[in-house]
Amino acid sequence: MSLTCFIRYQIDPTKKEQFEKYSENWGRVIPQCGADLIGYYAPHEGSATTAYGIYNVKSLADYEAYRARLAAHPEGKANYEFAMREKFLLKEDRIFLKLASGSDQSHAIVQGDQT
After folding, report:
1. Residue in 110, 96, 84 with CA at minimum distance from that of residue 59
2. Domain range holding 48?
3. Looking at per-residue confidence, does 114 or 60 come out higher?
4. With 70 as the cut, is the pLDDT of residue 1 above it?
5. What per-residue confidence (pLDDT) applies to 103?
6. Which of the four, 7, 21, 26, 106, has the lowest number of CB atoms within 10 Å?
7. Rounded to an integer, what is the distance from CA 73 to the centroid of its chain?
8. Helix, strand, coil percentages, rounded to 5, for the chain
9. CB 5: neighbour CB atoms within 10 A?
C-alpha cells in the first residue's frame, strides 16, 4: 500500500516568490531523500494564501525514515532555515491518504506505481 501526503500551506500572500523558491528547492531534495514527489503548487488564481505539496511514501515507517534523511540533507537543512528566516509559511497541515478508488492506471502516480 502506498500513502499520499498532502501538505496544505497557508502562506503570506506578499511572499509568494519565496514560497516558489522553497518549492523549487524541495523539487530537487525530496526525490533524493526517498519520496515520490508529485509536486508543489503555488497560488495562481483564487486564494492568494493557499498552497500545496504532494508526495507519495510506501508507509508511515518509510515516511519517518524519509523525514530523517530530509532533515540531515544539506539542502534540506538550508531550505528549512530559509523558510524560518523569511517567514512566508504561516501554517502547515499534513494529511496522509490512501487511494480508495482501485488500481486504475490513470491513478498510477498517486499510488506510487512506476509502471
Report:
1. 96
2. 3-97
3. 60
4. no
5. 64
6. 106
7. 16
8. 45, 30, 25
9. 19
Asked if the model's pLDDT at residue 111 lies above 60, the reply is no
Count of structural domains, the chain? 1
C-alpha cell belonging to residue 64: 519517518
**Per the structure block, which three cell numbers stand in for 78?**
538550508
Interacting residues of 25 by C-beta distance below 8 A, sequence separation 6+: 75, 78, 79, 82
Give the integer Cα–Cα distance in Å for 64 and 51. 23
**Nine-digit cell string for 21:** 523558491
Q: For residue 93, give the C-alpha cell.
A: 497541515
Tell me the C-alpha distance between 47 and 23, whole Å: 18
pLDDT digits (tens, 9 = 90+) for 6-52: 999 999 999 999 999 999 999 999 999 999 999 999 998 888 999 99
- In this structure, is residue 104 part of a structural domain? no
Decide: 3 and 56 in contact? Cβ < 8 Å: yes
